[in-house]
Amino acid sequence: MNSIKHINNALKDLDKEVEAILQDMSLPMNEKDNRMLPILQQKRVLTQTLEDLTYLKNNPPKPNQACGISKHRKD
Hints:
By secondary structure, the chain is mainly alpha-helical. It has 3 helices and no strands.
């Protein structure tokens, strides 16, 4: 699935952004927090999407049936 590859790449890019922010010694800690918060929120959404897509790839729904994603999620 191409979408799974794209999400994995996006997650890697977000990890690099977070690492760059953490290593920037010119930024005060509160500024680092402010910059990382939206990135970490994006990462959470992408991680959940990746888990959902992986579940659907491994457990495709039958025709005319609900996909069952809500049963799969733990949160």
